[in-house]
Write a structure and sequence with these properties.
Elements (H helix, E strand, L loop, with lengths): L11 H6 L4 E2 L1 H10 L5 E3 L3 H6 L6 E2 L7 H6 L7 E4 L4 H12 L5 E4 L9
Parallel strand pairs: 1-5, 2-3, 2-4, 4-5
Length: 117
């Protein structure tokens, strides 16, 4: 239902992505190699994480019932590297994190799917 308003030509998640620091897989891997433990966040579902995840990543399910509590436990002074499968959930997760005062965020553009491109 759009109440007669024209549809937005750019999906909301792409608009949100423009406010993030988006990096390609090579740069993400370079940063990940130097990242302290617990700062690489995989925001996919636990089953996706169990099937495959980047080495050193911590699972923090964006769609899980405790995501907000997990997010609030993060140190806002630390830099986090965030990814999902395609980049949509991680864009939304990063947006929530930024809104909560966690501003040092590196987003994997295109998610782990970008590794196959």
């Amino acid at each position: 239902m759009n109440d007669g308003l024209p549809a937005c030509p750019i999906p909301r998640w792409q608009l949100l992505k423009q406010a993030l620091q988006n990096v390609a897989p090579a740069e993400f891997d370079r940063l990940r190699a130097q990242a302290p433990a617990g700062t690489v966040l995989d925001v996919r579902a636990p089953a996706e994480y169990a099937a495959f995840h980047l080495e050193g990543a911590v699972n923090m399910d964006y769609l899980g019932p405790d995501f907000l509590e997990q997010m609030e436990a993060l140190d806002p002074e630390v830099e986090y590297l965030v990814y999902c499968r395609s980049g949509r959930r991680s864009v939304r997760a990063c947006t929530l994190m930024r809104n909560a005062g966690i501003t040092k965020l590196i987003h994997l553009d295109g998610g782990i799917n970008a590794y196959g491109e």
